[in-house]
Predict the 3D structure of the following.
Amino acid sequence: MVASGDVPAGRLRRPGQPFTAAQQAASKVPQITIYFWIIKILTTAQGEALADYFAFRIDPFIAGGVAFVLLVAALALQFRARQYVAWIYWLTVDMVAIFGTMAADGMHIKLHIKYAASSAFFAVVLTVVFICWYLTERTLSIHSIRTPRREAFYWAAVLATFALGTALGDMTATTLHLGFLASGVMFTLIFAVPGVLHWRFGLNSVVAFWSAYVVTRPVGASYADWLGVPKSVGGLGFGRGPVAIVLTIPIVALVAYLAVTRRDVEQPDPSPPPPAPPARGRHRA
């Protein structure tokens, strides 16, 4: 599943039209490959387990504050990088997963906001981000993340999707009493739907990508909770800390592999620039 290119819908580049700076700049996000989806789901699961581990051992406000500072530091590294760097990008995603979990859980535990209400709130936030992004840039394609402003919209959307996915997963597992395993299976099936609709029925690639992206959060979080929480609440009782450590190993291995092979690096637009117009003047014999 891939997102569409940098050219807004209905606006194709005419022959001879200059390439934009966004098309020529280096991409700040990876190509959408199987590695992307595997690492994405692993980070959502690891972020859920790690956030819950610290939230239950220290004050949630302190844990959230530390996570926020680390998230800001990771985002600073990401914005300072001139192009996509695997370890910086996935470190930022991981910190978004941890802080997003704490933000969604904090609204429920500390502010006593029901998961249905927080899900609706984060859905509205994500919608607003998408609307502002599209009205400003005329595209929501992740293949267009080649300018600082588009990157800012991108990370705002990512943070909103993590918070929304966390609230959705907790709502189905607890409020709707489906349990963590049933929620994980359900969201796994839902995750596959946008891809099927895209490849078989031509669903818009941008819509398909972001629909699947939102669902990766409850997929990973549900399985992480199922593995980590005590048996008395429907889990296997392995512990949140051990689950987070085990999940970190394949994340580090896959990111290291991509950093070395650069198999997910999206290059600038390879098309040649338009030819220069012929010089005017007298023709030589």
